[in-house]
Amino acid sequence: MKLWAGRFQKETDTLVNDFNSSIGFDVRLYRQDIAGSIAHARMLGEAGIIEAGEAEKIVEGLKTILADIEADRVEFSLDNEDIHMNIEALLTARIGDSGKRLHTGRSRNDQVALDTRLYVKEEIPSIIGLVLELEQVLVKKAKAHLDTVMPGYTHMQRAQPTTFAHHMMAYANMFKRDVTRLEDCLARLDECPLGAGALAASTYGVDRFMTARELGFSKPTDNSMDSVSDRDYAIELLSALSILMMHLSRFSEEIILWCSWEFKFVDLDDAYSTGSSIMPQKKNPDVAELVRGKTGRVYGDLLTLLTVMKALPLAYNKDMQEDKEALFDAIDTVELCLPVFAAMLDTLTVLPKNMSRAAAGGFINATDCADYLTKKGLPFREAYMIVGRLVNLCAKTGDTLDTLTLKDFRAISGLFDEDVYDALALKTCVNQRKVYGGPAREAVERQIALIEEFTAQRAQ
């Protein structure tokens, strides 16, 4: 018999049982559900709502159920619909009528709200830890390539010279923001919904502050209706994870480009590549491609939950059962992608000569040539026009700015002198950009130090 069967004269149709049941996916909340029930039972005993002895009996019974679940000795039933009712039914079967007192002063509505919050509260630090491990790989790569010059791009056209270290630090700063977004989400969800009941709390004198403390929350939620109908924290997490996956996807796209023969800036380790079933020469960047593809999956999870919640009146509605599969899938996907991506990045080989060769073409020192003229007193717009004429000349002759003769330079402007060649050297172009945040070695070293400080603070 179902725990809620008193009102009903018929058995639930088997089709409805299957359709209504969530035990197939919310079973992963068993630890959180038992933790919440233990806290609730202790509070009931402490507040004198049930006898202290019964409360202790419930707590001990729940502990044995937890041990049996983790030892794979428990079989869950579809008839009991969800993890909450399965555990309550198991408890009652083990300890008798005392088990029926556990649900005093609470509802499945505040129960599921609690379980999901607890789950997210536990998963966010794990995800943050994985992002910080990726940050360490980025720092390692950057330190090894402070002087590895490469072309920077805008519009996928070679634009200005930078370094591989500077490029790595760009992603390090993206992932730094991801960490802070996850931390913000964690701080906002740190309120306990237990005791909110179905929507209007309880006539029993439940101590919500006690259960919040027992479960490691900073405080109870402030409004019982909001407590059971809120999924903002889940949407916020999925939003943060979508942005994180977007960053991984952008990085993946660059790695895919860089390891192609058209670029050949990096070479992926064999352990993080795959081959072709028909083309023996192929070395495919499947890890990066899968990360790029799985980003769409996480976006879908976010849109699922936004769509489920967009028209729900207060308070709880069964639609909200659809939150868990999307939430679990996004968390699982991110936790799958981060470590393999970090390992792929850690093991890839950077090819500095190819980067340098690419940087030598495409006139990426053109802005520096214009800056050279402005430092000699020419207005920038005039300098811009002169360098444009030089580039046009090079395009006709097949030269680069570096290979033009001084005579060529002076034919267009008498301000050019022998020192122009030093000014146009790519390492000079990079290391003159000492502005805070720039690609010069000393500027990138500051960026690395900031990321190291950021990660060290969170390791304490």
Brief descriptors of the model:
460 residues, two-stranded antiparallel ribbon, two-stranded parallel sheet, 19 helices, elongated
Write up what this structure looks like:
This protein is mainly alpha-helical. The protein is 62% helix and 5% strand. Helix 8 (208-214) links the parallel strand 3 and strand 4 (219-220). Helix 3 (30-46) crosses helix 8 (208-214), helix 6 runs antiparallel to helix 19 and helix 10 runs parallel beside helix 12. It is elongated and about 100 Å long.
Helices, strands, pairings?
Elements: H1 14-20, H2 23-26, H3 30-46, H4 52-70, H5 83-95, H6 108-144, E1 149-154, E2 157-163, H7 164-188, E3 191-192, H8 208-214, E4 219-220, H9 224-229, H10 232-258, E5 266-267, H11 286-309, H12 323-347, E6 349-350, H13 352-360, H14 366-374, H15 380-397, H16 406-412, H17 420-424, H18 426-431, H19 441-459
Parallel strand pairs: 3-4
Antiparallel strand pairs: 1-2, 5-6
Task: Give start-end ranges of low-pLDDT stretches.
Answer: none
Distance between the termini: 51 Å
Largest sheet: 2 strands, antiparallel
| Class from secondary-structure proportions | mainly alpha
The amount of beta strand, in percent, is under 5%
Strands, total number: 6
Envelope shape? elongated
